[in-house]
Design a protein that fits this description.
The protein contains twelve helices and twelve strands. It is α/β, with parallel strands linked by helices and about 350 residues long.
Length: about 350
């Protein structure tokens, strides 16, 4: 194998797409998927590639210093792609300490392990930290987040990711650790854990349950197809300049309520229901505490310097996403019921 890459959080939503891309696109790489398998980690996401010779799974907690040191000593990675994180804003409001431990302490544990392993030779090494646009705070009706936008996180989740971003950059400046950071907009696509807006709404529409919408549904997000995000991560890992930051966005701004109206139309068509049926399920609920009004990413640096562009507009990507969920009902029901934890992961880890 020409390189060994550890991808943290590789059993999660975005991570599984990154693992699949790297395993299949770079067969000469050894890809080590390191994941704690929390509620959002699902090895069923990767059952199509888990027997390939250049793929290996390791169950470990990124906050466990001894476990991470042992993994780094065994595999001697040339690169780290760090996606492992607690990521749901609502959960961070309820339990901020869990986010501090995983997103901040866990990142420092990985940084220290990489620094220790690479201290005598950092040539060709790379620590790539994947972050979020939420670290920039909230936009008004105009403007875009750029790589030089000042940080202004508003939730425990975004604050923990902002802290991790600063620490990664500090290790670059202080210890000359070869790091790169990217901040992405909202992802959507296959394998998304159904607590997030799009998969939750798909599942609720399918089962004729209420579709909860915070406030008036006026909050705006820029949506990025997860496969396009994985492609961007591949490009940045191989071509990004050490010490730089790259924003990744889909150029697809939608208010939550407009998104849901579009999703309802698609679902009515796919389920052969009369037009307007699903919209009757829309239910407005109390707004989230500290709910940021608008996020929007300027990804022109990534596009102009590294040649990446998003491949899909939102309408096409959303329809592909709906098709996947409707074709993979067993996956969805296993996640909703918790069956993926009780059966698949136990089988995988024991064999």
């Amino acid at each position: 194998m020409s390189k060994t890459i550890i991808i943290t959080g590789g059993a999660g939503f975005i991570g599984s797409h990154v693992v699949r891309l790297f395993v299949t696109k770079h067969p000469d790489y050894k890809i080590v998927n390191l994941d704690k398998l929390t509620y959002a980690g699902n090895l069923e996401n990767l059952k199509d590639i888990d027997k390939l010779p250049n793929y290996e799974f390791v169950k470990a907690d990124i906050t466990d210093v001894d476990a991470i040191r042992a993994v780094f000593t065994k595999y001697k990675p040339d690169g780290i792609i760090h996606l492992a994180a607690e990521s749901h804003v609502d959960r961070s409001i309820t339990n901020p300490m869990e986010f501090i431990q995983t997103n901040i302490v866990g990142t420092v544990v990985l940084l220290n392990a990489a620094r220790e392993l690479w201290k005598d030779n950092m040539e060709g090494k790379r620590f790539y930290h994947i972050s979020t646009d939420e670290v920039y705070g909230s936009l008004g009706e105009t403007g875009l987040f750029t790589e030089t936008t000042s940080y202004d996180p508003r939730s425990p989740y975004s604050s923990s990711k902002a802290s991790a971003d600063h620490l990664v950059r500090a290790y670059f400046h202080t210890y000359k650790l070869p790091t790169v950071v990217s901040n992405c907009s909202n992802n959507y696509g296959a394998n998304h854990f159904p607590e997030k807006l799009i998969p939750l709404s798909i599942n609720n529409i399918k089962n004729n349950k209420p579709i909860p919408i915070y406030g008036k549904g006026e909050n705006v997000r820029d949506w990025l197809y997860v496969v396009d995000h994985a492609r961007a991560i591949d490009v940045i890992f191989h071509k990004g300049i050490i010490g730089e930051t790259y924003n990744i966005g889909g150029n697809n701004e939608w208010t939550n309520i407009d998104l849901i109206h579009l999703l309802c139309k698609i679902m009515d068509k796919k389920l052969n229901r009369p037009a307007g049926t699903s919209e009757k399920l829309i239910t407005y609920v109390k707004d989230r505490a500290g709910h940021d009004l608008r996020y929007a990413i300027d990804s022109s640096k990534l596009q102009s310097e590294l040649g990446w562009t998003p491949s899909l507009q939102f309408e096409e990507g959303l329809e592909k996403t709906v098709d996947w969920y409707l074709a993979n009902d067993e996956w969805l029901q296993n996640v909703v019921s918790g069956g993926y934890e009780k059966y698949y992961q136990k089988q995988y880890v024991q064999r």
